[in-house]
Amino acid sequence: MEAVLRNLFQSLAKNPSANRMAKKYGLRFGAKRFVAGVTIDEAVQAVRQLNLDGRLATLDHLGEFISTRQEAQESLDMCLATLDAIHESGVKSNLSLKLTSLGLDIDRQLCLDNMRQIVGRAQQYGNFVRIDMEDYSHCQPAIDLYRELRQSYDNVGIVLQAYLFRTEQDVDDLNELHANLRLVKGAYKEPATVAFPAKEDVDANYRKIIVQHLTHGNYTAIATHDEQIVQFVKKEVAERGIPLEQFEFQMLYGICEDLQKRLVKEGYKVRVYVPYGRDWFGYNMRRLAERPANVWFVMKNIFR
Prior knowledge:
Elements: H1 2-13, H2 16-25, H3 40-52, E1 56-61, H4 69-89, E2 93-98, H5 108-124, E3 129-132, H6 139-150, E4 156-161, H7 167-174, E5 181-184, H8 199-215, E6 220-223, H9 227-240, E7 247-252, H10 257-265, E8 270-276, H11 281-290, H12 295-302
Helix pairs in contact: 1-11, 4-5, 7-8, 8-9
């Protein structure tokens, strides 16, 4: 049953019609658990609350199914406005974004030009931008664009996914840039030709690439809610003498808050991924696909 639900939610996440319908109804059906709000002000207030107990954040203005240059321009404007709001409010937050929301599927040069504006604005503010990884078809284009940005900017990082066979090699290849990587297990549905189908293999590869990147001496954002992985990281960094300043744990807004707070009290850096915006549906469906147990929470909100 869990596999059926996971496949259902992954399919819905890619459905433009379902996404358009969801926009009409706002953050209903339990989405408020995972999405900080619709406006920048709501998102900044959520970050301010996180900062109060020592948690950092990365804000993401959600956007998917971009098909026009006008929509890409709107996403660009929102990314710049988010950086402005972070700077003006003084909250402790980076920016995360998806390249497809900035026109990658329309025109690569358009996307690159948009990214240069965003990373340049962040550089002016002393801030940092993280390129989120999307499905497998966008993996190499994203890495190529990241490499091009790194020729001019140091304040940009990217995400790599442990469930892809290629990732171990990607970690090695990006070592030459001393890349700041967020390492995740992966949330998209991919064929067995490019990704590990079994969870235990994904977990094993995740542990491998975490150690691989840390021992390269590069900054590592470890994005997980898996307490076994958290304990593994604690043990590895202690045994290898890796300083706490070289890594951080990252978790999603609305998930495992007790674990987040406990890690902060133990002296670890914790950054919370805080999404906001009207285009929340695809993101929310992927969260449900990752954790089908959350479906009961959503059902209760539907009938409340």
